[in-house]
C-alpha cells in the first residue's frame, strides 16, 4: 500500500465522516469541502521510483535536485521534508533498487548449491535484467558511481560492489573445501573475475548490447571455471 504524503513532506491524514474546517470545527452547508491552504499530496512510493529512474539513467553526480523535483513532480521543500537531502534520497533509492531490480545476485547465491551454479545463473539473469525495456539499461550501483565526486557516495557504492565480490569468494572457497572445485583454485582471482564480468556486462548493456550478446559473453566467462570429478554447477 502506497503512502500518501503532503506536498510539504508531512504524512497525509485520511479523513472520514464529518469534514472539518481549518480550525477543526465541523463544516456545514456551503462551507463543506476541501479546506483552503491544505497541502497538495503525492504518492511517496511513486515519487521514489521516479527518483530511482533518474539516478539510474544519469548517475548520482549528474542528477541535480532540480532534476529530481521536476521528475518527481514535487517542490524542493517537499523533497527535503519527505526524503532528506539528495544523498539520503539516493541511499534510499539504492536500497529500493537492490530489492526491486538487483536481487537476482543474492537469490542465485542463496538458492544454487554450488558457486559455479550461482555465478552462471547470476550472469544469465544479469543479461536479462540489464537489457529489459521500461527502465535504464545496466546496473544502477555500477553506473551511478561514474564521475562521482562525493566521497561518501562513491565509497558506499564501492563497498556494495566489493561486498558482492567477497560473497563470490566465500562461496568459491566453500566449494574448494568441499572438493567441488580443485584445491589449487585461486578463489580471490575467480571472484574478482566474476565481479569484472558483471560490471562489464552492465557497461556493455549501457552501450547497447542485447540480451543475447550478453548471454554469449556469460557463456564464455563460465568456460574458464575449473571442474573437479563429476561435480557440476
From TrEMBL:
UniProt DNA-binding residue ranges: 64-83
**Superkingdom of source:** Bacteria
- Spans annotated as Disordered: 1-42
Tell me which residues make up the HTH tetR-type domain. Answer: 41-101
Q: Which InterPro entries match?
A: DNA-bd_HTH_TetR-type_CS (IPR023772), Homeodomain-like_sf (IPR009057), HTH_TetR (IPR001647), Tet_transcr_reg_TetR-rel_C_sf (IPR036271), TetR_C (IPR011075)
Q: Name one GO molecular function term.
A: DNA binding
Sorted alphabetically, the keyword list is: DNA-binding, Transcription, Transcription regulation
Checking PANTHER family in the record gives: HTH-TYPE TRANSCRIPTIONAL REGULATOR YJDC, TRANSCRIPTIONAL REGULATORY PROTEIN
Q: What is this protein called?
A: Copper outer membrane regulator
Species classification: Bacteria, Bacillati, Actinomycetota, Actinomycetes, Kitasatosporales
Gene name tied to this protein = comR_2
Amino acid at each position: 500500500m502506497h503512502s500518501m504524503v503532503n506536498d510539504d513532506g508531512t504524512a497525509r491524514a485520511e479523513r472520514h465522516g464529518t469534514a472539518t474546517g481549518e480550525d477543526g470545527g465541523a463544516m456545514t452547508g456551503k462551507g463543506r469541502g476541501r479546506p483552503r491552504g491544505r497541502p497538495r499530496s503525492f504518492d511517496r512510493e511513486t515519487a521514489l521510483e521516479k527518483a530511482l529512474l533518474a539516478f539510474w539513467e544519469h548517475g548520482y553526480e549528474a542528477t541535480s535536485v532540480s532534476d529530481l523535483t521536476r521528475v518527481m513532480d514535487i517542490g524542493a521543500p517537499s523533497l527535503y521534508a519527505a526524503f532528506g537531502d539528495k544523498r539520503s534520497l539516493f541511499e534510499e533509492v539504492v536500497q529500493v533498487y537492490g530489492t526491486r531490480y538487483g536481487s537476482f545476485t543474492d537469490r542465485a547465491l542463496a538458492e544454487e548449491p554450488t558457486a559455479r551454479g550461482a555465478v552462471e545463473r547470476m550472469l544469465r539473469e544479469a543479461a536479462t535484467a540489464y537489457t529489459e525495456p521500461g527502465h535504464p539499461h545496466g546496473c544502477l550501483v555500477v553506473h551511478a558511481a561514474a564521475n562521482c565526486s562525493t566521497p561518501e557516495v562513491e565509497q558506499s557504492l564501492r563497498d556494495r560492489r566489493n561486498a558482492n565480490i567477497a560473497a563470490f569468494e566465500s562461496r568459491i572457497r566453500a566449494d574448494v573445501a568441499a572438493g567441488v572445485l580443485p584445491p589449487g583454485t585461486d578463489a580471490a582471482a575467480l571472484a574478482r573475475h566474476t565481479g569484472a564480468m558483471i560490471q562489464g556486462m552492465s557497461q556493455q548493456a549501457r552501450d547497447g548490447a542485447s540480451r543475447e550478446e550478453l548471454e554469449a559473453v556469460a557463456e564464455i566467462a563460465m568456460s574458464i571455471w575449473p571442474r573437479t570429478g563429476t561435480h557440476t554447477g
